[in-house]
């Protein structure tokens, strides 16, 4: 848990709740008012590159939160540098709730899940919307030419804080692709055994035919 995370998250109301329920002492040491944003290191970079989706929270001017699932090909959330992330905003249901919220309140939070390994990365950032016509080169850096979806804009995220969260209540879940990868060695072994059984059965049939031929020849003499 980073100190920047505590600086953002432990508001007076949160600290009051920690005091009331007995966890304040455990977290108080994290608060030294460190204003230095967290950096995206090699571990975070590799984790982000392996994800094909994440949950994104925004809030409107009235304070109402909105959580949206963003999906795409693996790695569509790009690490542009140790402080910056970005992704191509594909055309969806055209409600533009997240877009409108980010235009009004640039503070966002992301949760990236690795269900098979029960890992979770939380990211706090400030969002900037970049329309294609305003900076086509930047938006093109976020595009995936193999993914057939219309890109309307780029979303650039300046990272403020990160936190690797407790896996205690994360239930392992697997995508179809992950199941296929896990099953591949078993299927290969099954093919080997079936081939072996087929070969043995073929040998038995051949031996039976040889024996029958010998008996037939013996009976003809």
Explained architecture:
The protein has 221 residues and is α+β, with helices and mostly antiparallel strands. Helix content is 41%, strand content 27%. The chain has 7 helices and 7 strands; from the N terminus they run H-H-H-H-E-E-E-E-H-E-E-H-E-H. Strands 2-1-5-6-7-4-3 form a 7-stranded antiparallel β-sheet. Strand 1 and strand 2 form a beta hairpin. The longest helix is centred in the C-terminal third of the chain and has 45 residues, at 176-220.
Secondary-structure-based class equals alpha+beta
Major sheet characteristics: 7 strands, antiparallel
Biggest sheet, strands in spatial order?
Answer: 2-1-5-6-7-4-3
Supply Rg. 28 Å
- Helices and strands, in order, run as HHHHEEEEHEEHEH
Low-confidence regions:
none
Work out the strand percent. 25-35%
The CA-CA distance between the termini, in Å, is 92 Å
Tally of DSSP β-strands: 7
Total helical segments: 7
What coarse outline follows from CA principal-axis ratios? extended
Give the overall average pLDDT.
87
- Percent in helix: 40-55%
Spell out the key features of this protein.
221 residues; alpha+beta; seven-stranded antiparallel β-sheet
Concise synopsis of the structure shown:
By secondary structure, the protein is α+β, with helices and mostly antiparallel strands. The protein contains seven helices and seven strands, in the order ααααββββαββαβα.
Outline the secondary-structure elements:
Elements: H1 3-9, H2 12-21, H3 24-28, H4 42-49, E1 53-59, E2 65-71, E3 78-81, E4 84-90, H5 97-104, E5 107-114, E6 119-131, H6 136-142, E7 151-164, H7 176-220
Antiparallel strand pairs: 1-2, 1-5, 3-4, 4-7, 5-6, 6-7
């Amino acid at each position: 848990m980073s100190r920047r995370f505590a600086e953002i998250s432990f508001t007076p109301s949160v600290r009051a709740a920690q005091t009331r329920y007995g966890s304040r002492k455990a977290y108080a040491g994290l608060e030294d008012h460190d204003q230095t944003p967290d950096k995206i290191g090699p571990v975070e970079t590799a984790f982000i590159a392996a994800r094909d989706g994440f949950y994104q929270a925004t809030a409107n001017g009235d304070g109402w939160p909105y959580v949206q699932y963003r999906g795409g090909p693996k790695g569509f959330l790009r690490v542009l540098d140790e402080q910056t992330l970005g992704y191509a905003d594909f055309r969806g249901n055209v409600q533009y709730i997240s877009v409108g919220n980010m235009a009004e309140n640039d503070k966002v939070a992301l949760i990236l899940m690795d269900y098979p390994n029960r890992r979770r990365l939380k990211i706090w950032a400030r969002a900037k919307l970049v329309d294609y016509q305003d900076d086509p080169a930047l938006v093109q850096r976020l595009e995936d030419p193999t993914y057939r979806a219309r890109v309307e804009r780029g979303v650039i995220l300046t990272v403020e804080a990160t936190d690797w969260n407790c896996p205690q209540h994360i239930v392992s879940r697997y995508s179809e692709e992950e199941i296929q990868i896990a099953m591949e060695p078993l299927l290969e072994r099954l093919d080997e055994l079936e081939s072996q059984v087929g070969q043995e059965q073929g040998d038995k049939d051949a031996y039976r035919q040889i024996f029958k031929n010998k008996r037939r020849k013996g009976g003809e003499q």
